[in-house]
Amino acid sequence: MLRFRCIQLFTSPFEAPFIQSFKPHTSISCAQMGSYSTTSSSSQNSPKLVFRQLFEKESSTYTYLLADTSHPQKPALLIDPVDKTVDRDLALVKELGLKLIYAINTHVHADHVTGSGLIKTKFPGVKSIISKASNAKADLFVEPGDKIYFGDIFLEVRATPGHTLGCVTYVTGDGPNQPQPRMAFTGDALLIRGCGRTDFQIFTLPKDTLLYPAHDYKGFTVSTVGEEVLYNPRLSKDKEIFKNIMQNLNLSYPKMMDVAVPANMVCGLQETKSEAC
Coiled coil located at which positions (predicted)? Predict the structure, then answer.
């Protein structure tokens, strides 16, 4: 069963968000650039994922570009875009000959303004996506268990609340025709050798799952579930030690908090007055 959350009917999957509801196999409760291309080994006709990891230095934020280049229209999406690097990201989309269809956020960010609204003003066909639990504005609201398709590749939506109630992790699909190893875009829920003030069960994923956080402050770009199980100094501890660590971090008030949160509730465009941004 397909679940569409938009107010207008469309004739093509590339004119509208293509979200499919499903029951996940596992239960989850809780300008620097890296890149690679990968294909599934099961078939010559399997989708080809092109992936780019992009960096915004002021907030140490990662934006991720994914596309299915085996599809004729080369549909693409951006995860956690930043307003200050929208022009760079859209230039890359154009250079690679991709068709951007989604601008996705893992949660309502407090340390930068999302670029999703600005992207929509430049590419009106792009649809913004965020979790329904975030209570922010978007064209499409996803819930745990939804699938987001771009071409023949899809992302699963998994709830990872704690950092905010609306935090979700986007995980590449599990199947013979999906790229391997799997990739998890964790937002602020799980960082490399750290976490974003949250509790969750991302560790139920296979140990070779690649983890791509929304931030890194030490120069790391990617990790795996297996590495974080062994070496994450917070999450390798028991519950009481974890609580004590998190309660005594003495973190400063986020400098962009008062600007970023109100803006990100409306796709980064505070003047937006419509129901969907």
Answer: none
Strand order in the sheet with 48-56: 33-39, 48-56, 61-68, 75-79, 99-104, 127-131, 140-142
Q: What is the Cα 128 distance to its own chain's centre?
A: 12
State which H helix or E strand residue 121 sits in: helix 116-122
pLDDT tens digits for 167-179?
899 999 998 889 9
Specify if 130 maps to a domain.
yes
Whether 17 is in a domain gets the answer no
Mean pLDDT score, 64-72: 97
Please count the other Cβ atoms lying within 10 Å of the Cβ belonging to residue 218. 9
Is residue 102 within 8 A of residue 127, CB to CB? The reply is: yes
Band (pLDDT 50/70/90 cuts) for residue 245 is confident
Domain count, the chain: 1
Structural domain span for residue 246: 47-254
Q: What is the pLDDT of residues 195-236, one digit of tens each?
A: 775 434 477 789 999 999 887 888 999 999 899 888 988 776
**For residue 22, is it within any domain?**
no
**Alpha carbon separation from 86 to 75, 92, 175, 202, 268 (Å, rounded):** 18, 10, 32, 29, 12
Return the structure tokens found at 107.
């949660």
**Torsion angle, CA of 193/235/212/71, rounded to 10 degrees?**
160
Residue 233 belongs to a domain with what CATH number? 3.60.15.10
Q: Which residues, 6 or more positions from 246, have their beta carbon under 8 angstroms from its beta carbon?
A: 197, 234
State how far the Cα of 205 lies from the Cα of 189, in Å rounded to an integer: 15
